[in-house]
Amino acid sequence: MDTQQKHLFFFVGRIASGKETQCVQLAEKLGYTVFSTGGKFREIVASGSLLGNRIKADYEKGLLMPSWVANYMLEEFLFNLAPERGAIFEGSGRDVEQAKVIDEVCTWLGRSYTVLNLDVSEDEVVKRSLLRGRDSTDKDESVIRMRLAEYNRLTKPAIEYFQQLGKCININGEQTPAEVHEEVMKKVAEVLK
């Protein structure tokens, strides 16, 4: 691996696990760029385009977007990321197919990476989602449960795949955001030394 290439970090975890918060904080500490799959999807939805309306309809049903859409955005970003730039990814690695794409592309590009799994129980997810009420789907427990089922069906096996590769570190996401950040920083320091 080219020693000039910056290490990449991928945050995964259930909905409302604090991925976005931790991505932003880590990016500020490291001076890295943040790539948010959810953020990209929200931009597309806000555009009111045909694709945006389709994404919105699926999201309101609690469904994840097709892997090919997320993979395309992820690959495009990785291919255009300068070697001396680091990046933190929020919401990538959502299923085994995408996990394999991440590993294959990063390996091919010679980029080292670590997956940080913010581990939060389903009950905590429901509680946090109902409290935050970011959008109408966060206020409907049945949609939250549907999204959790999608996570268990698709994302949990992706995390297991990363664990088998020795690329995944679990973080206790049920702590306060400050405590989670402290644990993230300790783990990141170990990876980067």
Low-confidence stretches: none
CATH superfamily: P-loop containing nucleotide triphosphate hydrolases
How far is the N terminus from the C terminus? Answer: 16 Å
What's the pLDDT, averaged over the residues? 91
User: Roughly how much helix do the residues carry, as a percent range?
Assistant: 55-70%
Largest sheet: 5 strands, parallel
Structural class: alpha/beta
CATH topology term? Rossmann fold
Task: Tell me the fraction of residues in β-strands, as a range.
Answer: 5-15%
What does the model show?
The radius of gyration is 16 Å and the shape is globular. With 193 residues, it is α/β, with parallel strands linked by helices. The chain has a single domain, classed as P-loop containing nucleotide triphosphate hydrolases (Rossmann fold, 3-Layer(aba) Sandwich). It has a five-stranded parallel β-sheet with strand order 2-3-1-4-5, sandwiched between helices. The protein is 58% helix and 13% strand. The mean pLDDT is 91. α1 (19-30) crosses α8, α2 crosses α3 (50-60) and α4 runs parallel beside α5 (96-109). The two termini are 16 Å apart.
For the structure shown, list the relevant keywords.
193 residues, alpha/beta, Rossmann fold, five-stranded parallel beta sheet, 8 helices, 13% strand
